[in-house]
């Protein structure tokens, strides 16, 4: 399988685009005409530059408003095509994309279009070139790949083929299985793009909101399965028109693109075992069992402060690392579900993370079915493996760098599961101060909004997880977009929060911690009222919620005043869905906006209390303001 990407998908000038595309491991590029026109070198220089990067030009595009023109436009269109053929010869590519005509002058008629393409194919053949015909979803007469195929079929020329583009087919909800009857060798190139579901006109949707396969909501896998079934063996080429990507980091977008293609083809290979698909062999997405630990990097002083906060939540220091300045905090019986690690080392990644971000939860450990396989898959998908010096007798825990520069460790059932015994030495048992917190319910990570798709693709391509629809959270200082990535049964729940500006609580946290990511940790309780009582007696001060909230709860959901009274007294917020109920309360802020949450899920409640987020944020801002939080 050859991977390719259109230059239009990446930001920067042509030089920067090519460097990023090559570094990410693509085999080829589609040269988008405008990227070429804006460049100040000759076509031959562009061709040389592409090849010096080890890339080939898979396609020159687009050639517009070609088929079905009346004279005199028709003759001029052919002249224009000949000029572009000259250019292609200099660039060193043999394939040109003709997109279906959108001109009001176009006459329509399948046979007329076929005759024009046949003549163009004849002219292309004289120069050893080929032309591919693509149906734009908004084409004037041709907007469906089935019609485009019929035209190509009737053109009946070896130098004329079909170009498929997942966006145009899927945006119009055309059944992708109609591709299965097209001969694979008549398809000259396949362009791939996903997109979020949006209600808008097709052209604007396509030109501004496409994204990488797996990042959006379109059934790109079903489309690609149908393409694979035709026997098509040419390049798979990403063609992503996206306003955000145009301003993003070329390196990141290129790495995301290649990750998305490999992940897609791996999925197709598993779902179409009868079709031979050349994709690097990789372990399947690994299932997650639970969050094994969260590790904070802090100074000694901050460790004391964080420890004080954890003590009020019922945690106590239980074990110390045998050779490092690292302490394990737990609560409840031995082997309870929450392991919090505080690292005050003066070297290594924890230390450098602390220098950059201040105290922060820079690492997490995830228990998976197979730790080594997880890292193998992640590496093939372009993630960076992480290894740190380990002392004699210590384990080498498979790990990768996360998107934000932190670390994700993977632990499985083998020797790795004994890490707490092997590397740690138990401390004297303190008096019992358990608050009934049983597990990490979810981890909330904050990032710039522009980086959210990168994170979503990272998690969903490496781990057996899925994304939920994005929701808007209103902060008095602006909007925060929130998207959940979760594993079956809640074994891993991540809430990703994308901040658009620094006036929001999330944006403030991001700015003040120089891009650290874990902004809050939610612990699960089986009895939130009991946990609330316990932590209060340990000195915990919950985030105070406005009394107006509880009046509204009674009115809105018809809750018993007795229940709302208890919630009001403990500052507990409430939500429910078709499956169950959710109770939650929060801590105040630690540092520049880090906090803890305690939750109880009753029945099969699946959400995260998103409806309550604005009230939580308003309360946190009230609490933060005296320390210099900008007024929203
Ligand atoms: O938006 C367009 O005009 C356009 C051009 C070329 C393509 O391949 C395409 O999918 C869209
Ligand atoms: Mg296209």
Automatic annotation (TrEMBL):
Binding of Mg(2+), residues: 442, 520, 597
Looking at the record, the residues that make up the VOC domain are: 290-413, 439-588
Q: Which GO terms describe its molecular function?
A: 3-dehydroshikimate dehydratase activity; isomerase activity; metal ion binding
Keyword Protein transport in the entry? The reply is no
Reported EC number(s) for this entry are: 4.2.1.118
Q: Which cofactor does it need?
A: a divalent metal cation
Q: Any one Gene Ontology biological process term?
A: 3,4-dihydroxybenzoate biosynthetic process
Which reactions does this protein catalyse? 3-dehydroshikimate = 3,4-dihydroxybenzoate + H2O
Where, by residue number, does a divalent metal cation bind?
A: 134, 165, 191, 239
The entry sums up its family as follows: Belongs to the bacterial two-domain DSD family.
Q: Which HAMAP family match?
A: DSD
Q: What is this protein called?
A: 3-dehydroshikimate dehydratase
Q: Which organism is it from?
A: Nitratireductor mangrovi
